[in-house]
């Protein structure tokens, strides 16, 4: 079923006697640069091996994990593990410290919390904006 121009969602033909779309605006929409940063982090998290790496690093009592300790539990080769670690570092989720021939990885303090907070804040704003006021 075809819709004539100006008859789509958000169009109000009675407003000012003209038909047209009204841009959707929120109270505090996610800025483009922030959306790009979030997308990079989610892309980094959208891999089962990377999620497992974060889990291993986060659960280590020393709060850090040597790259040499990741290949076996992940059942991946060292070059593949290194690639996943690089993606997580570039996304700002892990930090890397070189000690001799080994690299040690730890969670960036507050990175996961900031990610969750950003999502929660915007989701709350969107849902409260969408729900009718009583």
Strands, count: 3
Uncertain spans? none
Q: Report the sheet-strand fraction.
A: 5-15%
Q: Helix/strand-derived class? A: mainly alpha
Mean pLDDT: 81
The 3D shape can be described as: elongated
Rg over alpha carbons: 23 Å
Distance between the termini: 36 Å
Strand adjacency order, main sheet: 1-3-2
Report the major sheet: 3 strands, antiparallel
Helix content: 40-55%
- Put simply, the count of helices is 5
Helices and strands, in order, run as HHEHHEEH
Detailed description of the structure:
It is a single chain. The chain is mainly α. Helix content is 47%, strand content 10%. It is built from five helices and three strands. It has helices spanning 32-45, 48-59, 71-74, 78-90, 111-130, and strands spanning 65-66, 94-99, 102-107. The protein has a three-stranded antiparallel β-sheet with strand order 1-3-2. The chain is elongated, with a radius of gyration of 23 Å. The model has no long low-confidence stretch (mean pLDDT 81).
